[in-house]
Each structure stands twice: as C-alpha cells, then as structure tokens.
C-alpha cells in the first residue's frame, strides 16, 4: 500500500473538499458507525481495496482518543478476517482460478518471488511483509496456495499488523494532534527499522 496522509480532522472544508479518501475519512470520523466502519475498511484494505488504512485510522484515533486501543483492536480484527479470506482463496481457489487471482492480487513475477520466500522463510516472510506498508495480499495468497500452516500464518499476521496498529495508537497517545505529521514524516524510516528488527530476530533465532 502507498502510505498517504488524510486531511486533519479539524479541516473545516468537510467532506466536500480533498480526495475521496479524505472525504471518506471525514465521514467515518464523525459517523456513529465509525467502529464497524473501521473494521470493514480494514477487511477491505487487506483483501480487495488497497486503501492506505493509516490515512483513516490516525484521524479516527485523534478524534476518539478514549478508544485508541479499541480502534487498534478493531483494525486488527478486520485485517485478520481479510487475511483468512485471502488464505482461503489461495488454498481452495488457486488451482482453478490462479490466473484470475494473480490479476487481482499480484502479478506472476511477484507471486513466484513470494512463493520462494515463503518456502525459504515462511513465518518470517509473512511477519516482514506485515510490518511494512506494502500490499499484504500476495503473502496471503501464497500462504494458502502453498498450504502453509494457517495457525502460523495467522500468528505472524496478528503480530505484524498488531505491531503496526497498536504502534499507531501509542503514537497518537504520545503525540496527539501531531501524530499524523510525525507518521507522514518518519513512516519510511520506522518501517525500515522494524524490518531490520525482524530480520535481526530471525538471524538470532
């Protein structure tokens, strides 16, 4: 996923200005259905709609600071539901509809590289993909298509995405209204640092 910033929740232009994502984020922040809407957005982000979830999640957390960790948990829940669907698509549908799935989720070259990485590193491959702002769909599809352990796949997904979403909650708790600007400014370096940490743990284990 390409990480972009949503407009600030205090933007008085409201849903009539900015990109469609900013308008959707504005409506979500002010909606009484924000909690299940976030869960649905996270599910869609991890399956068929490559939206940058952070662009919705950070403004929502800023507006609902008493629910920071609930929002992180719901984002994780939606992601894991989507991950299970993607895994199932790879497990049960890839043999019959592999070409169509690759057109939807990835390209053949990406899939083959991911298949090799899954065969070589398995759990650590899923974990490394999950902590970085890159599409997760290829990892889900490959895990299912190769018959990788569903339990280990879900564990790696939960650890990786939990680190991201609860990390955002801590960022908002600590930085408040500056969280979005800090995330936008440092997200690449944070992603690299977390990836290096994952690789370091892998080498030590």
From TrEMBL:
Q: Where are the transmembrane segments?
A: 34-56, 68-94, 123-143, 150-174, 186-204
The signal peptide, as residue positions, is: none
Q: Protease: is it a keyword of this entry?
A: no
Every VTT domain range: 68-173
The cross-references to Pfam families, in alphabetical order and at most eight, read: VTT_dom
Coiled-coil blocks? none
* Keyword line: Membrane, Transmembrane, Transmembrane helix
- Keyword Nucleus on entry: no
Gene Ontology cellular component terms for the protein in this record: plasma membrane
Q: Could you identify this protein by its name?
A: Alkaline phosphatase
Q: Which organism is it from?
A: Haliea salexigens
Taxonomic path: Bacteria, Pseudomonadati, Pseudomonadota, Gammaproteobacteria, Cellvibrionales
């Amino acid at each position: 996923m390409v990480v972009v910033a949503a407009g600030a929740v205090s933007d008085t232009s409201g849903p009539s200005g900015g990109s469609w994502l900013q308008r959707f984020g504005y409506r979500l922040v002010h909606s009484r259905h924000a909690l299940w809407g976030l869960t649905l957005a996270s599910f869609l982000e991890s399956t068929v709609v490559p939206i940058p979830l952070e662009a919705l999640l950070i403004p929502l957390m800023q507006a609902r600071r008493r629910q920071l960790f609930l929002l992180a948990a719901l984002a994780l829940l939606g992601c894991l539901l989507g991950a299970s669907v993607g895994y199932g698509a790879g497990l049960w549908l890839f043999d019959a509809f592999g070409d169509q799935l690759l057109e939807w989720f990835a390209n053949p070259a990406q899939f083959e590289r991911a298949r090799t990485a899954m065969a070589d590193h398995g759990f650590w491959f899923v974990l490394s993909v999950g902590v970085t702002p890159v599409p997760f769909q290829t990892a889900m599809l490959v895990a299912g298509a190769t018959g990788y352990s569903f339990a280990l796949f879900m564990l790696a997904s939960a650890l990786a995405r939990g680190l991201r979403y609860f990390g955002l909650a801590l960022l908002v708790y600590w930085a408040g209204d500056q969280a979005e600007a800090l995330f936008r400014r440092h997200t690449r370096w944070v992603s690299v640092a977390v990836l290096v940490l994952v690789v370091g743990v892998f080498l030590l284990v």
